[in-house]
Amino acid sequence: MFNPKKLLKALIAACLVCGSLSAQEQGFDLSTQRSESQSIHTIPGKMLDHKGIQLNPTPHSLKLTEKGQLDITKGLRLNDKKNKFSEDLNFIVLAPKGVKLTIDYGSKLAAKHGVKSISGAYAMSINNKGVSIIGYDEKGAFYGIQTLRQLVDSPASAGKKVPYLEINDYPDLLYRGVVEGFYGTPWSHEVRLSLINLYGKFKMNYYLYGPKDDHYHSCPNWRLPYPEKEAKNIKELVESCNRNRVDFVWAIHPGQDIKWNDEDYTNLENKFNMMYDLGVRSFAIFFDDIDGEGTNPRKQTELLNKLNANFVKVKEGVKPLIVCPTDYSKLWANPTPQGSLSIYGNTLDPSINVFWTGDAVCSDLTKETMDWVNSRIKRPALYWWNFPVTDYVRHIIMQGPVYGLETTLTPNDLCGLISNPMEHGEASKLALYGVADYSWNTADYNPIDNWERALTELTPEAKDAYRTFAIHSCDTETGYRRAESWETQTFAIDNYTEEAFHALFKEFEKIERTPAELEEKCANKALVSELHPWLIEFGKLGTRGKRALEILKIYQTGDHAAFWTAYTNNLMSEEQRKSFNAHKSGTMKLQPFYENTMNDLANEFFKKLTGEIPTVYKGIGSFNSLKTTQSNLMLDNDSTTYYTSGTSQNDRSWIGVDLGCVRSVAEVSVYQGRNSTNDVDYFDHALLEYSEQGKDWKALTDSLKNQYDIQWKGEPVKARYVRLKKLPSRKTNWAAIRSFEVNPINLSSLNFRIEAKDPQEALRAFDKHPGTSYANSGVLAFTLPENTTTCTLLAKLDASKGPVKLQQLASNGKVLSTITIDTPFIKMNLVKGAVKIAIEGEVELFEILLN
């Protein structure tokens, strides 16, 4: 659905693992199309007692008729009235002398048994006479069989004794299924076949095949036939869908280079005929994520109507056509009667179904958004839900509950719900279990209960381990955020309690064990393979979280050397951070707890040693993501990393820093964008301001236009807050900040001299910020301010890089004292006559304190 070109670039700071961009991605930029809410809503629902009956989707009506069970240990005697279902019953033993199983369907028969007159409806009865399944149509009877399959596997049917019951069931939505429409690595043929079996089992009836990287689906090769191997695979997919009573919908994406002429119309119809010959009977045309002439809505509807008349309504067995319009989101759709959607409503054949993603590309399904689009297209839209898709956050794997879908909606509001999953097909099954449940029985959908049932269904042998990983792997970190770690309570160090400490410590221990447990116990090795890189990082997160708690205890003892040694040993290296950023989990609570705790401990330690407040600033602003640890990327003294807002800027947007207390501010430096030459993510019209209380803001600069690098230096002002505020402009891109510095330390501001390979870099060892450091690889020397009596080093050592030597020197260069640094924390008295210190060797220096 959405093109992530802009989004991929915006997330490079998170070290996303991205494949090469397709031709379609290179030709189109959706830089103004993302405005997802970052609000994080509580997940509704609760676990229910199902009396040992595990069914998905939830039946509309299920009644246990009496206390009794049907013994099927000797098998079932099949009475297949239409001779359609013998190959669908491999989950039971068929025996001539078994209990009677009757399967039949038909509208008149269904009406007699009280079955609703819609496709997929069925009734099931289990009593002392046997099992009876009556479907409104073939799909209905097949769905009854799927219910029997799950019932037989339920705990309530232990020992092959099935409870007596009556079920009357039907789907709420006409279209229920999946679109393979994500950008990135397409599913393998084997994964597609595995997913089709899941669709059938859970009563989903549509699989839209539209991989963005299928070159014969999109330009420039949409006109050409599939090569033999690819055609054979598609035919196998169609056959598998037929066995599972799933409509295989082949989608074509011709809009980027289509010519509105007879030749290309003929090319399109010819391609449809090729697919028809492979067994395809359902078709879709996507006009999403394109620019140029292909976006013309009148030309689109003219072509669609012509194809509908000449192909869809003429060819035997072809289902109604589906279209994805160019204006598939309210975010940029023209709302006027002259807009594309209104043109669709006035000119498009009523039988053609129209896709819609809601208020934004990734957004909740609400009555309001459906009313908005339906009033324009003059039919209930088909909802394309961009969940659990992660092609815009490929460092994330979504394993959380399915929620954000209004449960009061009816077929008058939408004709169906189609999920766009992840490129990780096996890992998408957890979410698809919920999509199947919601779209079948909307009013009774219970997100938490469904998620818990899905974990049991998909990994019964490893449910606890999978649940631990999944509950901490829900947040997108940016854009369409999702609740995560909702059972885990973290805390700030000043809110420490023994109870909270031990509960969190226990959770981190469980997280640490989870990867090995899941990889050992989980029977679905394809799922484990997809999760593997995330599991590796998840276990490491458990370890460092646990160690952060242990360091908190050490800090409380007052042992400075032990604390600083443990602290530095638990810092993430550049390589470790790169690995975590590529495969993140725990982004909402766990990793922030680790980072915040480590930062807070270092800052408190600095205050304890010096009596001063460290120069540590906090990101603030109008974007919710500034409240997360992502804001650290603009405060890390590294201009190659950057904070990104994760949602569109507007005329009320601003980004700034909290200095922690009112300070004298004489200089501010802000580097906007992901680079300072051609990036689109910056405030192109802005103003630099300051405030003492965060209420009354005063300007430091005049308005700034098209300025990436902003430097202000002037008469000192008193401020606790400094911000860059957007002024009115047409720009709606994200915002990015590489660096936001207030009173940046410089050599001229020191009352002593520094000698080093890079003196400016060496300032990090003297910046009163314990979170920054200088990697010394030669000699760092510095003179001592007058009346200095002690020197404290906060360092990190690597024994493999050789010894580190510290010398105290007299004014004539004579060496007065030499020691080997063999501990990260050193506090030493200065030798009489010492005026200079030299440190030689490879060592990371966080802070050098001179008192």
Write the layout of secondary structure elements.
Layout: H1 5-10, H2 23-26, E1 61-63, E2 69-71, E3 76-80, E4 99-105, H3 107-112, E5 122-127, E6 130-135, H4 138-153, E7 161-163, E8 165-169, E9 175-180, H5 189-201, E10 206-209, H6 228-243, E11 247-252, H7 262-277, E12 282-286, H8 297-312, E13 322-324, H9 340-347, E14 353-356, H10 367-377, E15 381-385, E16 414-419, H11 425-440, H12 447-458, H13 463-471, H14 498-521, H15 525-557, H16 560-569, H17 574-582, H18 590-610, E17 618-621, E18 643-644, E19 654-672, E20 685-691, E21 698-699, E22 704-705, E23 709-726, E24 736-742, E25 754-755, H19 759-762, E26 774-776, E27 779-783, E28 790-796, E29 804-809, E30 815-821, E31 825-829, E32 836-840, E33 843-850
Parallel strand pairs: 3-4, 4-6, 9-10, 9-16, 10-11, 11-12, 12-13, 13-14, 14-15, 15-16
Antiparallel strand pairs: 1-8, 2-7, 5-6, 5-8, 17-19, 18-24, 19-23, 19-24, 20-21, 20-22, 20-23, 25-27, 26-33, 27-32, 28-31, 28-33, 29-30, 29-32
Helix pairs in contact: 5-6, 5-11, 8-9, 9-10, 11-12, 12-13, 13-14, 14-15, 15-16, 15-18
Characterise this structure:
It contains 19 helices and 33 strands. The chain has five domains: 5-36 and 172-458, Alpha-Beta Barrel (TIM Barrel); 61-169, Chitobiase, domain 2; 493-610, Methane Monooxygenase Hydroxylase, Chain G, domain 1 (Up-down Bundle); 618-744, Jelly Rolls, CATH 2.60.120; 748-850, Galactose-binding domain-like (Jelly Rolls), CATH 2.60.120.260. The protein has 851 residues and is α/β, with parallel strands linked by helices. The chain is globular, with a radius of gyration of 32 Å. α13 crosses α14 (498-521) and α15 packs antiparallel against α16. The protein has an eight-stranded parallel β-barrel. A hairpin with a 2-residue loop joins β5 (122-127) and β6.
